[in-house]
Write a structure and sequence with these properties.
Blueprint (H helix, E strand, L loop, with lengths): L1 H9 L5 H13 L1 E2 L1 H8 L3 H13 L3 E3 L7 E3 L2 H36 L9 E4 L2 H13 L4 E7 H5 L2 H14 L3 E7 L4 H9 L8 E6 L7 E4 L3 E9 L5 E6 L2 H16 L4 E4 L2 H11 L11
Helix pairs in contact: 1-2, 2-3, 2-4
């Protein structure tokens, strides 16, 4: 019991010897240095050096007579006071760190943009992917070209797609989505309904095949390629690069699929639907009608 008590006191910031001395004082109620030395097997000189620290922590009091007596203040109140002080210290430290983070972030954003060399990064955690997403929107992109499979949209990744597409719409990003390998357009339309942002420029086409079944091209500057590896949360590990040779390859692949005669329009922007309606003089009824 005594060893366990001493170890718990070290979590409050006590050294082992401080904890032993304090426990001895608590158990005795009121005691002297000779008795503390006998109970703890510590030298009296060491005890004399450590008692002022315990007194400063608000844990004990000493009498002014010689030899002086030592008494512990109420246990729960004393250690509770240490907890309050620790909370206050951590609160000040967190506030200080948040201030530093804000100041450093502002300084970095004010630095002039430099030419970015080709980079190749494997994003193996959800945190890494989310951080890269934040970096995308800071650059104020204009368009996203996305290729996915029907199964991919229905999987856990779909949750991130919905959030991502809504953020894109809120930031005025034009989105084109190609869904690969789904021939049941009614079923696909029902699924797409879950992904349509509340606003923004959003188009969807379906194709039977594509060179790659999972990627995202941001403007003409970077590409995200989904791999078969999984993060701990079960989402695909992403290969990211801004190498223009690779970006151009996927951009060309997307444009070929999008403009292919075999592609089927699943969802059009509101402006496109209205234009077709005016041409036909009748309401436009797409293969998928948003509810």
């Amino acid at each position: 019991m005594q060893e366990d008590f001493v170890l718990k006191l070290t979590d409050f910031g006590f050294t082992i010897n401080q904890a032993k001395i304090y426990l001895s004082i608590i158990q005795a109620g009121k005691t002297c240095v000779d008795r503390i030395a006998k109970n703890t097997q510590l030298h009296k000189q060491d005890i004399y050096k450590l008692l002022p620290k315990l007194e400063k922590m608000g844990l004990i009091t000493r009498t002014i007579d010689k030899p002086f007596m030592v008494e512990a203040l109420p246990f729960e109140r004393s250690l509770g006071g240490l907890i309050v002080k620790e909370k206050s210290r951590l609160g000040h430290r967190i506030a200080k760190l948040e201030k530093h983070l804000k100041e450093m972030s502002e300084e970095i954003q004010q630095q002039p943009e430099m030419y970015e060399e080709s980079r190749f990064v494997l994003l193996t955690t959800n945190v890494a992917v989310e951080s890269r997403c934040e970096a995308i929107f800071k650059k104020k992109p204009k368009r996203f070209m996305i290729v996915s499979t029907f199964e991919g949209l229905r999987s856990r990744v779909g949750i991130y797609y919905r959030e991502f597409l809504q953020i894109a719409a809120d930031n005025g990003v034009k989105v084109k989505l190609i869904v690969v390998g789904q021939e049941d357009f009614v079923e696909l339309g029902k699924l797409i309904e879950k992904f349509v942002p509340d606003n923004g420029d959003f188009e969807v086409k379906a194709v039977g095949s594509c060179s790659s079944k999972g990627y995202l091209v941001v403007d003409d500057g970077e590409v995200w390629i989904l791999t078969r590896q999984k993060t701990r949360r079960g989402c695909p590990v992403v290969f990211w690069t801004n190498d223009l040779n690779i970006v151009d390859f996927y951009l060309e692949d997307f444009e070929d699929c999008w403009s292919s005669s075999r592609s089927v329009t699943i969802y059009q922007t509101k402006m496109q639907r209205e234009a077709v309606s005016m041409m036909k003089s009748t309401p436009f009824i797409p293969q998928f009608i948003p509810t």
